[in-house]
């Protein structure tokens, strides 16, 4: 059954994702190739990826309406079709002759060692400013030109849409310091990104990232004091809600109201198989939850986070990134 036919609290909300599409190419090798050496791979796999595409798919699988603005090369038709079949509106995905689709060339050894070469490709081909479709929520990452992210954020703000920023991979310190944080409603980061953000934004290089005795406290408490430290930085706007994922420790949230809470990770039925894309699955599901709570006040932020945590818990038990994002029915049926 397609996620669209679920009809779970369908609303007028629509999410715009302006972000990346990649082809992830996995070359299985007995060991990583050294300079000057030629080796044959033992197996090859090609998968759809890119944080923008992964998160758009997660919104769609969570039964949210979602449109994507992105670029692929002539070799990217199959991904656009895959996104369409998943329920993503692909009308504003353009095809360029100038570059191939963004690529990750991944060498993988049986021991799990890897080595990754990225080609930004079509993701960085200059874009004609699109006619934006109507949207209520705007979700951005950092795998496209920074100025495109800024332009989209600024447009989204001017329309009054809710903006969600997942700054991954983390922009440079300079970009973070000049970032228009007042335009962001929701910041979604992992623990490493939260700490790096403080390092980038704190006033002096010697200022500690957090205070107190780090070693005696749990990951959750350390994470929470990181969030408070971030929230109080002068360069960071106090109007940003912060959500920080902590891997197997779940998620901590600090709302602009000052309310904070921890949601533990989902209890798993089986072993962790592949955490790739768990963050993207979490982010897309959270945004779909926020879209629903915008029109139904009974569905609070905490509910949205719980749904996203359940989805991410299913995602880590399956291999792959995009293909391991569960649909809404699987998440609702999973009473953990
Ligand atoms: P990222 O991949 O962006 O670093 P995290 O590792 O924090 O993100 O994972 C995102 C979410 O995925 C977590 O908040 C959690 O809900 C879920 N998750 C990740 N690892 C596990 C795990 N080992 N067990 C259960 N849930 C997990
Ligand atoms: Na997975």
From TrEMBL:
User: Per its record, how is this protein called by name?
Assistant: Ribokinase
* InterPro entries xrefs: PfkB_dom, Ribo/fructo_kinase, Ribokinase, Ribokinase-like
The uppermost taxa in this organism's lineage are: Eukaryota, Fungi, Dikarya, Basidiomycota, Agaricomycotina
- What reaction gets catalysed by this protein? D-ribose + ATP = D-ribose 5-phosphate + ADP + H(+)
Q: Which organism is it from?
A: Meripilus lineatus
Query: Which residues does the annotation say bind K(+)?
Result: 274, 276, 315, 318, 320, 324
Top-level taxonomic group: Eukaryota
Gene Ontology terms: biological process: D-ribose catabolic process
HAMAP family reported for this sequence:
Ribokinase
**Main enzyme class:** transferase
Q: Which cofactor does it need?
A: Mg(2+)
**Which positions fall inside the Carbohydrate kinase PfkB domain?**
15-327
């Amino acid at each position: 059954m397609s996620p669209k036919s679920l009809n779970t609290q369908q609303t007028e909300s629509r999410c715009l994702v302006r972000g990346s599409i990649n082809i992830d190419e996995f070359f299985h090798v007995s060991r990583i190739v050294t300079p000057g050496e030629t080796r044959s791979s033992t197996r090859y796999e090609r998968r759809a990826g890119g944080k923008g595409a992964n998160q758009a798919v997660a919104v769609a699988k969570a039964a949210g309406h979602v449109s994507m603005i992105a670029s692929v090369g002539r070799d990217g038709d199959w991904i656009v079709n895959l996104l369409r079949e998943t329920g993503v509106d692909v009308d504003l995905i353009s095809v360029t002759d100038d570059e191939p689709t963004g690529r990750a060339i991944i060498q993988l050894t049986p021991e799990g060692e890897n080595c990754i070469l990225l080609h930004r490709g079509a993701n960085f081909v200059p874009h004609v400013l699109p006619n934006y479709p109507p949207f209520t929520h705007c979700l951005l990452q950092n795998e496209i030109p920074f100025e495109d992210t800024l332009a989209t954020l600024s447009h989204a703000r001017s329309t009054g849409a809710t903006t969600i920023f997942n700054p991954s991979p983390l922009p440079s310190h300079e970009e973070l310091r000049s970032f228009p944080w007042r335009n962001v409603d929701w910041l979604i980061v992992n623990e490493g990104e939260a700490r790096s953000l403080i390092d980038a934004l704190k006033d002096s290089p010697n200022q500690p990232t957090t205070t107190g005795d780090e070693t005696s406290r749990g990951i959750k408490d350390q994470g929470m004091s990181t969030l408070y430290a971030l929230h109080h930085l002068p360069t960071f706007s106090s109007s940003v809600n912060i959500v920080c994922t902590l891997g197997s420790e779940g998620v901590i949230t600090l709302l602009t109201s000052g309310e904070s809470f921890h949601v533990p990770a989902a209890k798993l039925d089986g072993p962790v198989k592949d955490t790739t894309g768990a963050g993207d699955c979490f982010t897309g599901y959270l945004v779909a939850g926020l879209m629903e709570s915008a029109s139904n006040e009974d569905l609070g932020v905490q509910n949205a986070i719980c749904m996203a945590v359940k989805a991410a818990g299913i995602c880590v038990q399956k291999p792959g990134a995009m293909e391991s994002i569960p649909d809404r029915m699987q998440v609702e049926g999973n009473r953990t």
